[in-house]
Give the backbone structure.
Amino acid sequence: MNQQHLEKLISTGYKLIAIETDSPEQTLNDFRPLIRESKAIYQWEKNVGLSRMEASHINIPNTKTPEMVLNHISQSKLYGIYLLIGFNNDLAKMSLQPTLNKIADDKSAKKIIIFIDNYFDYPHKLMSKLLIAQEPEVKERTSFGQIA
């Protein structure tokens, strides 16, 4: 994705964004130029944890599981763009829905969660609060009817 497209996604007002892509690692790297624009960007991988993108070797404690990272994001008062890789099946977990709704509904906090993966199991109750972006190669083989 180009920088202009990423800027548009970030400025939509959505707190929860899902990007479906065949190359999650490349999409993650596409966010790197935004660091130079003084944006606080974090990256997360399951069982690894959350870290600032520019200091990926320093993991934030207690953020290795989906539950832990969402609780950390929910409690944070700081601006941040959180790139969560490998959240595909966890997005629909019922136990995570209250925290996801809290983050999506919090108008005072300036934080955005961007889920990046090949596909997602979308929870119906979250659909009105979730912006879904598909890269062109994914759109060609998937229709929205198949997702929802």
